[in-house]
Design goal:
Bound molecules: D-xylitol-5-phosphate, zinc ion
Radius of gyration: 16 Å
Number of strands: 10
Strand order of the largest sheet: 3-10-9-8-7-6-5-4
Order of helices and strands: EEEHEHEHEHEEHEHEH
Largest sheet: 8 strands, parallel
Shape: globular
Length: 225
Amino acid sequence: MCREGRMNILSPSILAADFSRLGEQIKEVEQAGAGYLHIDVMDGIFVPDISFGMPVILSIRKCSDIFFDVHLMIDRPERFVKEFADCGANLINFHLEATEDVTGTIQRIRFLGKKVGITISPETPAEAVAPYLKLVDMVLVMTVKPGFGGQKLIPECLDKVREVRSMVMQRGLRTDIEVDGGIREDNVHLALEAGANVIVSGSAVFRNNISDNVRSFMEKMGYAI
Ligand code: DX5
Ligand code: ZN
């Protein structure tokens, strides 16, 4: 479960949850052992779809203390980091492609007392994160095109995970590397081998028996069940 001091963490994406039973399903993933909750915010501009925003996050914050891993797929995220911090995010991930002021956005999130993640879409090379590595807690490497759940993992993106992991190691950092998109029980080992330690999964968690799915992921991630 733990390699070079890094914990493996499962972060179920509520994009695939049943929104009419959201509170209940969040408690279920938490009780089954998930460490984070992945919260996908889409604005219909940076990505073609719209998901949900602050009021939903504020409302689920009341039903769980789980760590909120907020993934902003929004244009110019710097405009809204305070609102997302105020509604209960623990970590705010934003896309490098979405802003011209990456350093300023990182600093703004830090100033709000939250953890910071930078995210790269499949078309963005791994080297793009290099200038910011020392400033962030996490790099999120998208393993599908952002915007929709239920897509297939793009295997080439795992090569970028390897590159980011090696940059992190070379610099002696403890940066988390998260993967997001198309991760299931049968391919999670590939993401872990590539060097990811925070695993997002939506459709493979929120289907059939949610607790069983979480436990099965946790087992594959090295936890004794
Ligand atoms: C995609 C989102 C993902 C998505 C993952 O844009 O960022 O978090 O919910 O869903 P699955 O695991 O179904 O690919
Ligand atoms: Zn996501």
